[in-house]
Amino acid sequence: MATMFVTVTVADGIATVTLNNPPSNLLTTSVLKELDQAFGKLEADDAVRVIILTASGKFFSPGADIKELAELNTVHQGSELSGRGQALLNRVERFDKPVIAAINGACLGGGLELAMACHIRVAAAGILFGLPEIKLGLIPGFGGTQRLPRIIGPSKAAELILTGETVNSEEALTLGLVNRIVPPGEILLTAQKLAGMITAKGRLATQAALRAIRTGLDSPLAEGLAREAELFGELCETPDKKEGTRAFLEKRPARFS
To answer: 2 pLDDT band (50/70/90 cuts)?
Structure first.
């Protein structure tokens, strides 16, 4: 599937969603709309097990188009744009299919907010991450003030948000903002290997794991534990669980259905 700003390819159960809005992959209103449409189709496609989100060119995304931001002059206009971006990123975060961000270049503002909504983040070495909205007299509006503290802790998140300063890939790894850093030429291959490891596992268990993680982040510990037990119990009745335990005992690879 190819549109003006977003390209989607599918192979072996892995969908690759590529931002293509040269020269820097700004997250314009049109790009956000196409991303929403792309993820809507992937959500309904049973052949897709894992999604890789990446970008063409030298940038992942520096975020919103400043020209569009300059035209926001009312509370309604600002809240509407923020709500539209939040809805898309919430959709990505709540996907039952794992979404891996393959961050190939500078990842700033809305671009970082988009990456943080993904379940796993792989980054190229030597690139920059940050939320510079404070330098525009704004704050992150696509969920950055909520997700960054949850990922790296409130104190460091406050520093980055309040100063607008950036960190490089190596510091992002230390902070837990990204899972891995790799040479630029290996970014997509690394994401594909991770995706392949996931597609080799049972679909139902993968979905249940993501649901349990999401419940735990959204709820008190007791509710998260109760949901985990419920999902664990449901999986005990599935053919995949029977195959997985049998394969382990028989010392052979599992063949999940």
So the answer is: low
In sequence order, the 6+-apart residues with CB closer than 8 A to the CB of 111 are 25, 27, 59, 60, 61, 62, 63
The one catalytic residue in 71, 80, 93, 113 is 113
- 169 — alpha (psi -120 to 50), left (phi > 0) or beta? alpha
| Per-residue burial over 37-51, b = 16 or more CB atoms within 10 Å of its CB, e = otherwise | ebbeebeeeeebbbb
Tens-digit pLDDT profile for residues 162-211: 999 999 999 999 999 999 999 999 999 999 999 999 999 999 999 999 99
Catalytic residue, from 34, 43, 93, 133: name it.
133
- At 59 the three-state DSSP class reads strand
Instruction: List where CATH 3.90.226.10 sits in the chain.
Output: 6-199
Task: Give yes or no: 133 in active site.
Answer: yes
Element (H, E) at 149: helix 144-152
Q: Does domain 203-249 have CATH number 1.10.12?
A: yes
pLDDT digits (tens, 9 = 90+) for 19-29: 999 999 999 99
Active site residue 68: no
On the question of pLDDT at 65 being above 60, the answer is yes
In angstroms, the CA 257 to CA 250 distance is 18
| CATH architecture observed for domain 6-199 | Alpha-Beta Complex (3.90)
**Stretch(es) of the chain classified as CATH 1.10.12:** 203-249
Pairing of strands 166-168, 99-103: unpaired
CA atoms within 13 A on the CB side of 53: 28
- DSSP conformation class of 46: T
